[in-house]
Amino acid sequence: MSRVKGKYALITGASAGIGEASANLLASKGCNLILTARREEKLKILAQKLEEKHSVKVYIYPVDVRVNESVELLLESLKAIKTVPDFLINNAGLALGLESVQEGFIYKWDAMIDTNLKGLLYVTRAFLPLMIQKGEGHIINIGSTAGWQTYPGGNVYNATKFGVRALSDAMSLDLVDTDIKVSCVAPGNCETDFSLVRFEGDKDRAAKVYARYKTLEAKDVADAILYILNTPSHVNIPYLRIMPKAQRNVYIFKEKKS
Ligand code: 8X3
Question: How does pLDDT run across 190-228, given as a tens digit for each residue?
């Protein structure tokens, strides 16, 4: 049974990676989509493909979650078309750099904190009251294994993902009297453009992160998200950690034989 068919999922950071994979998978199960990202061009192509292939409604909006005014504009746009999401997938997030704290760049810290924490909060604050009014709903916050274990140079990225984990927990408590569930999905090493962004376009350095063993694919994480959204109304999954088989934690992994 599909519990997502005919529902609306709002996905942030939907133009690539886990966001895009989730959009593909949810659309294939008949879920309508509200896709946001900073890059509208990629969203347009994705929306057209999904509407044609799966006959679902796909709305796209260029949104910068770091800017609350941009999120408020999204809220107004959705109010104008009387559309309230059933599912909110707070996926927009990034890592920048691997410098130690003593050598860190303030602009990278700001970008990570503004996107991974403040952006998640802005979007949640905007839509949660409407979701509560609507009735049942589900927030999925994309965390990371970096929210369970720190690593050298991870510092601020680690802090934001520990924060996403804490916020997921805290939101769940705040929502106890509602029918809104909150889940934190925390992937380990997943091959997307995450490392390319982290290393600001250095393709060789990014490729090395994914070359050591078979990593997760964005679709694997999307499968986990769909599983969570498909659970019966009375079932809640606060955390779902998903790792490549070869990666047991941040430090312990089995390298491919060359
Ligand atoms: C991505 C996983 O280990 O690169 O969130 O921080 S890791």
Answer: 999 999 999 999 999 999 999 999 999 999 999 999 999
Helix then strand then coil, in percent of the chain rounded to 5, is 45, 15, 35
Percent of the chain with pLDDT over 70: 100
Q: Please tell me what DSSP assigns to residue 62.
A: E
Q: Is 192 in the pocket of ligand 1 (CB under 6 A)?
A: no
Best of 145, 213, 221, 243 to mutate for ligand 1, by most ligand atoms within 8 A of CB? Answer: 145
Distance, CA of 51 to CA of 81 (rounded, Å): 18
Q: Is residue 138 part of a domain?
A: yes
Backbone angles phi, psi at 13, to 5 degrees: 60, 45
Parent domain of 34: 8-188+219-242
* 130 falls within a domain: yes
Q: Report the C-alpha gap between 234 and 101 in whole angstroms.
A: 43
Whether residue 39 has pLDDT greater than 90:
no
Ligand 1 site-directed mutation target among 185, 193, 242, 250, most atoms within 8 Å of CB: 250
Asked, for residue 140, whether it belongs to a domain, the answer is yes
Give residue 198's pLDDT.
98
Residue 251's CB: how many other CB atoms inside 10 A?
Answer: 8
The pLDDT mean for the chain works out to 97
Q: Is 157 a catalytic residue?
A: yes
What CATH number corresponds to the domain at position 64? 3.40.50.720
Domain count, the chain: 1
Q: Residue 18: what pLDDT?
A: 98
**Alpha carbons 224 and 186: distance in angstroms, whole number:** 10
77 in any annotated domain: yes
CA dihedral of residues 121, 127, 133, 135 (deg, nearest 10)? -90
